[in-house]
């Protein structure tokens, strides 16, 4: 875990150092627009470092007795909206379509932990799908559970990887596109979902891309 974390943080800091060197060199004046782009790159890399550390700490804590789920009846629409607000800087101008019926019953879950799961799924969808392509986040009541789905327009997940991508440190074929990560996020999401009595899985929509689903128990009446 430490090796994977160190590798990802080192890559981020190499990029940050390179960008800062350009800004401080003074050899050529940096135009305002380019300066904003360079600072945006630094901000993006620092967010990546923060996510890597958060994923690692979260996963290590899940393997101990340090984490106690605070499960309460939650409005899943508000949980989803809260998660999207926390990663608004990552989505930028990307369109995210929300399809959450107001009639949904409440989910029985730990709001903060489920928001971590949703942030991971949406971050992955943004990372592995074409720039400017839309994402869809929806929720439905299946009778036995509430299922939240995150659908993207990316390359999809190969059939033989649909289970493996939830293993610790495993990174699928999509990682060959150059997107960096520790391979801990989905493993952490799976542990959290199952700790709630739910599950997490991926399917392939007919129109292409990937659809990640998280099921959560319905709150007692």
Short description:
With 221 residues, the chain is of the alpha+beta class.
Order of helices and strands: HHEHHEEHEEHEE
Which topology of the largest domain does CATH recognise? Heat Shock Protein 90
Count of DSSP helices?
A: 6
Mean pLDDT: 82
Strand content: 15-25%
The overall strand count is 7
Radius of gyration: 19 Å
Which sequence of strands runs across the widest sheet?
2-4-5-7-6
Largest sheet: 5 strands, mixed
Low-confidence stretches: none
Could you give me the name of the CATH homologous superfamily of the largest domain? Answer: Histidine kinase-like ATPase, C-terminal domain
Structural class: alpha+beta
Distance between the termini: 41 Å
Features:
two-stranded antiparallel ribbon, Helix Hairpins, globular, alpha+beta, Heat Shock Protein 90, 2 domains, 221 residues, 45% helix
Explained architecture:
Helices cover 45% and strands 16% of the residues. Helix 3 (76-86) packs across helix 5. By secondary structure, it is α+β, with helices and mostly antiparallel strands. A hairpin with a 7-residue loop joins strand 6 (199-203) and strand 7 (211-217). The strands form 2 sheets. A 5-stranded mixed beta sheet has the order 2-4-5-7-6, with helices on one face. Strands 1-3 form a two-stranded antiparallel ribbon. The model has no long low-confidence stretch (mean pLDDT 82).
Topology, pairings included?
Elements: H1 2-25, H2 32-62, E1 72-74, H3 76-86, H4 88-91, E2 96-99, E3 107-109, H5 111-128, E4 135-141, E5 145-151, H6 185-195, E6 199-203, E7 211-217
Parallel strand pairs: 2-4
Antiparallel strand pairs: 1-3, 4-5, 5-7, 6-7
Helix pairs in contact: 1-2, 2-6, 3-5, 5-6
């Amino acid at each position: 875990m430490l090796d994977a974390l160190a590798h990802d943080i080192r890559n981020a800091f190499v990029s940050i150092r390179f960008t800062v060197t350009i800004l401080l060199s003074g050899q050529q004046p940096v135009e305002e627009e380019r300066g904003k782009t360079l600072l945006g790159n630094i901000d993006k890399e620092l967010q990546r470092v923060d996510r890597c550390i958060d994923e690692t700490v979260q996963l290590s804590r899940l393997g101990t007795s340090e984490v106690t789920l605070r499960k309460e009846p939650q409005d899943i629409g508000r949980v989803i909206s809260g998660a999207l607000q926390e990663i608004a800087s990552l989505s930028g101008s990307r369109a995210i379509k929300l399809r959450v019926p107001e009639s949904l019953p409440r989910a029985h879950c730990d709001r903060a932990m489920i928001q971590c799961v949703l942030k991971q799924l949406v971050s992955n969808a943004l990372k592995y799908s074409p720039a400017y392509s839309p994402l869809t986040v929806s929720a439905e009541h299946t009778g036995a559970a509430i299922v939240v789905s995150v659908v993207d327009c990316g390359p999809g997940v190969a059939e033989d990887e649909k289970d493996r991508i939830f293993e610790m440190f495993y990174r699928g074929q999509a990682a060959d596109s150059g997107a960096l990560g520790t391979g801990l996020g989905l493993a952490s999401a799976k542990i959290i979902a199952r700790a709630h009595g739910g599950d997490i899985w991926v399917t392939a929509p007919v129109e292409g891309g990937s659809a990640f689903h998280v099921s959560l128990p319905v709150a007692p009446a």
